[in-house]
Design brief:
The protein has helices spanning about 15-25, 40-60, 75-85, 100-110, 220-225, 235-250, 255-275, 305-310, 335-355; strands at about 5, 65-70, 90-95, 115-120, 140-145, 145, 150-155, 165, 185-190, 200-205, 280, 290-295, 315, 325-330. By secondary structure, the protein is an alpha/beta fold. The strands form four sheets. A seven-stranded mixed β-sheet has the order 2-10-9-8-5-3-4, sandwiched between helices. It has a three-stranded antiparallel β-sheet with strand order 11-12-14, with helices on one face. The longest helix is centred in the C-terminal third of the chain and has 22 residues, at about 255-275.
């Protein structure tokens, strides 16, 4: 058995993988593969409609918001958000908390002025800045809710006087969110929602249509809303798997239930790291992520032997990002507590044999 701690594409529920595999051969007994039916067929339209409906239900999306399934990953949204929201003579505000926030900042600078209200770059992003002022004259304030590389997470979202834009790629559907607090949420699916290839966008309708530039159709949120995420051929398979994953999440009790599971899983692993003399967590305790647990060894020479033991025990995807080093255990929604207990046992065994 493999215990998949990979940062992304991340683990998916086993039942979702089985259902998706069946649909590749024959979708719901229609005699055709999901991969070969028209996106305009009643069968696929039902898939897309259910996916949108599940997003709205699980997140209690209020009236006045649109739910889109788009292509290009969150990295494309780095550009589309300012393209649609930042006037050419305007300013956008950003919180810099890691690599992905930094990339979003670079894209926004193509469209207007960018103000970095706070950064934790000087500490290699080991904490989330807290004492900052959001400029009321900016078009929007952009944040990254969870930082996969550095293992930090916003435990509370800021109250913003301007539209709040959030990249939720690595913790979408892992905890309760008040959608009404946000102007725009976007998230690549491949952490908690589905396979790579589709990006979820939840946008407040009344923040659109206020920029002074012409926006090409494919990059215009309003065009995508009018087309119902089908202005062009959508990523049908990725949307289908996302729909199955959202069904699975609903059956488990929804976002509130999975949030409690995630809190428990993270606590078990962090407690084990804190108690183990060989390991040390990287992120500031108050900002530790419940999705990506980053830790290092007090003695770096023991890293390779530990990784070898993990591999022998079926633990995969545990190696840390090159910019941080050490280890990263990504504990997304579909990872069971049993896999975390296996990792904890291996850590304790390794510590015992390396006193």
């Amino acid at each position: 058995m493999k215990h998949n701690f990979g940062a992304g594409p991340g683990i998916l529920p086993q039942e979702v993988l089985k259902q998706a595999a069946e649909a590749v051969i024959d979708l719901n007994g229609i005699g055709l593969s999901l991969l070969e039916i028209s996106h305009r067929s009643k069968e696929f339209e039902a898939v897309l409609d259910e996916a949108v409906s599940l997003v709205k239900e699980l997140f209690s999306v209020p009236e006045g918001y649109s739910v889109l399934f788009l292509q290009g990953g969150a990295s494309t949204q780095f550009a589309l958000a300012p393209y649609n929201l930042l006037p050419s003579t305007g300013k956008a505000a950003y919180l810099e908390t890691g690599v992905w926030a930094n990339k979003a900042i670079k894209e926004a600078k193509y469209f207007g002025e960018v103000e970095i209200v706070a950064t934790s770059k000087e500490s290699n992003f080991t904490y989330i800045p807290k004492d900052y002022t959001i400029p009321a004259d900016a078009a929007y304030f952009h944040i990254t809710s969870n930082n996969t590389i550095y293992g930090t997470q916003l435990q509370e979202f800021p109250k913003s006087p301007i539209p709040l834009v959030c990249d939720m790629s690595s913790d979408i559907f892992s905890r309760k969110v008040n959608i009404a607090d946000f102007g725009l949420i976007y998230a690549g699916a491949q952490k908690n929602m589905g396979p790579a290839g589709v990006t979820l966008v939840i946008v407040k309708d009344d923040i659109l249509g206020k920029v002074d530039r012409k926006i090409p159709a494919m990059f215009n949120y309003q065009t995508q809303i009018e087309g119902g995420s089908m202005y062009n051929t959508p990523p049908c398979f990725a949307i289908y798997v996302s729909m199955l994953t959202l069904r699975w999440l609903k059956a488990k009790g929804g976002v509130a239930a999975i949030e409690q599971e995630n809190i428990t899983k993270a606590r078990v692993l962090y407690d084990a790291i804190d108690a183990n003399p060989l390991f040390k967590a990287v992120a500031a305790p108050e900002d530790r992520s419940n999705m990506n647990v980053c830790f290092v060894m007090e003695n770096p020479e023991l890293e390779k032997p530990f990784l070898k033991l993990c591999d022998e025990r079926g633990i995969v995807g545990i190696k840390g990002h090159r910019s941080v080093g050490g280890f990263r255990a990504s504990i997304y929604n579909a990872l069971p507590l049993s896999s975390i207990l296996v990792l904890v046992d291996v850590m304790n065994e390794f510590a015992e044999s390396n006193k």
